[in-house]
Amino acid sequence: METYLETERLALRRFTADDADLLIELDSDPAVMRYLTGGNPTAPEVVRERYLPNILAGYEKWGGDLGLFAAHEKHGGAFIGWFILRPEPEGPLDEVELGYRLRQAAWGKGYATEGSRALLGKAFTELGVRMVWAETMSVNHGSRNVMKKLDMTLADTIPTPPDMEMIEGSEHGGVRYEITREQWEQQ
Questions:
Q1: How many CB atoms neighbour CB 30 within 10 A?
Q2: Residues of the chain with pLDDT under 50
Q3: I want to staple 152 with a disulfide (CB 3.0 to 4.6 A). Which of 104, 107, 131, 177 is the partner?
Q4: Which residue numbers delimit the N-acetyltransferase domain (predicted)?
């Protein structure tokens, strides 16, 4: 399996057609899905028939450089979740979203910061990215703390999408953080 990116403790790789069960298991944990669906799992057929094919199509669309990447611990190989580095569907390739979804067993170990920091480095030094952004719910303090550790700046507040209004804390809306190549280079 070809490695997309390595950190001290993590190896990121492209997903394959055989990885549906990893995504299904991740999205079945109510705590993982708390700020995404209110804790409701993603139906396995949705993962198999829509999510995974879209992930694989993204690699083709962006030459394998951008998309959603499976993250494994280098020591032992455990799947810990995924990281995302990709533009909006029809957006410019030099403005990309950074994100992650990690299994509970991987929480609190610094993996989100470690993987995200490495992806920022790759984006700004190898992929010609000008700006990276990330969004989360205002009440998702864990993700907001990661964005702050990455020296991303709070750029905007965003309304809660209608399909997320049932989620605890949705009345507070969301936040968007950004970092430009110039800001990253000054760190």
A1: 12
A2: none
A3: 177
A4: 10-182
